[in-house]
């Protein structure tokens, strides 16, 4: 079987997609490729100036789909609700892509959640639930959530939401990405049980040379560390075009409930295929408990 590439994506003309964190890195590539295949793409970003620049670059290559920018700070439940409140019409595809990675010191969102858990998981959990009525207006709605090989560092304490006591950047990031994967799997399980037309998939990009490493919300909070790490990643790993492949495959082609990623060296790179899930990621009881806890923390309920 030949290697899957975004050129094999189906025609998306007439479909509407929303990609979080689409102003840079793999999110920008995802937005570009979806628009290149005809989708009307909403780039939901925290920095709208950067988002508009990204949108301009996508339009400049002559894509058939439209590209618009919306403000969204996933660390703020108020911002998530504001975007959902002003969103209108059907939504065919939601790509839960944005994320924060390994801030060196414990930080909280405005709502009092640990930054990675509150942004990576709870922000996307609430966004998906609030946009669900728009998704269900579409003929074949799809939600794709981006996890990470770092989810293997997560454990059964994921429902605790990364407490301040004993905070460790890598472990806490791993738990947040485990939460992403558990959410995607549980969403598909609940949709199937309800007889819903919604499809949920998950993917991870492997290790990709993006600005995520140098972000001031992550390792870039220590400038020297962020700069060194960013250049090291750029030298050793592929860029965002390759990193986005598994996410685009999951968003357009993969089977319901699947988890896609690179299949090369320790899943850091290579051709897209089925990704490995940790023991905790396969735990249906843990997924259900996390779902219930997420409903309690966000106040968002899903009606499938």
Strand percent estimate: 5-15%
| End-to-end distance | 36 Å
Poorly predicted regions: 228-236
The shape, in one word, is globular
Biggest sheet character: 8 strands, mixed
Verbal overview:
- Keywords: Oxidoreductase.
- Pfam families: adh_short.
- It comes from Pedococcus ginsenosidimutans.
- This is Oxidoreductase.
- This protein has a single domain (6-296), classed as 3-Layer(aba) Sandwich (Rossmann fold), CATH 3.40.50.
- An eight-stranded mixed sheet has the order 3-2-1-4-5-6-7-8, sandwiched between helices.
- It has helices at 25-36, 48-60, 77-86, 115-135, 169-193, 223-236, 240-243, 245-252, 284-298; strands at residues 16-20, 40-45, 67-71, 93-96, 142-146, 199-203, 259-262, 272-274.
- It is α/β, with parallel strands linked by helices.
